[in-house]
Amino acid sequence: MSPDTSWAERAAALYDPAYAKRYRAHDDEFQASGPCREFADWLGRVCARFTPPIDVLDLGCGTGRYFWALKGVNRLVGLDASASMLAEARHPYNADRITAASVSLVQGDLLTHAIGDARFDLVYSIGVLAEHVPFDQRVVERVVNGLRPGGRFAFTTVHPASPSIPKPLGRRIGEWIEPITFGAARRILRSRLLAGGLYADEMRVHELLDGRLVVESLERFVSEAHLHCLCVARKASA
């Protein structure tokens, strides 16, 4: 099993039919979740930065929880590694409020699936990158290639300072000494604190995006589960 395919295979195994049905049932409690409503509002504001219609890719779409929050969409593609989650996404939350002219659901690994060149105006991902899948150069390069000039990448990460992250003694020591280390030692320590890409702070977001995309907004956000980074970055116009 290659490192690239292992993430998709783990997700497919975890998100089996029973899990997917429970996850989809949780979607129906959406209005009771303040963070979910704020994520939806955030997506709406991102869509408002475009002149419609736009083509959109949801990386790790799951059950299609946020499809309805998108505005001015012509073509929406939902990509996920789990066939069971995609089966639930065929009847997503607020289906009657989805305004996209067409919706396509695709099973695939976001680390290896061919997104295509310059096909999308917006690529977004909520609760996936730097959480269930490493956020690294592979992801950024694929997104940059998939965006049209002037397109945007909107995503969340789990911040390494999130209270949800277990902090054994080794991690606490690493967090304490990291600011006073330098060079290769600091890079190695930071990689460990970021769990090889499963967490990402503001510095890491800039390290990955700067020179490829222009960061338009980068803020912290507290959900029911984590402290997140919320980022919107734009590809330069041709």
Helix content: 25-40%
Average of per-residue pLDDT values: 94
CATH class: Alpha Beta
Which architecture would the CATH scheme give at its second level?
Answer: 3-Layer(aba) Sandwich
- Count of structural domains: 1
Which structural class do the helices and strands define? alpha/beta
Order of helices and strands: HHHEEHEEHEHHHEE
Largest sheet: 7 strands, mixed
CATH superfamily: Vaccinia Virus protein VP39
Cα radius of gyration in angstroms: 18 Å
Strand proportion:
15-25%
Strand order of the largest sheet: 3-2-1-4-5-7-6
Distance between the termini: 39 Å
CATH topology: Rossmann fold
pLDDT < 50 runs, ≥5 residues? none
How many β strands by DSSP?
A: 7
Describe the global form.
globular
Number of DSSP helical runs? 8
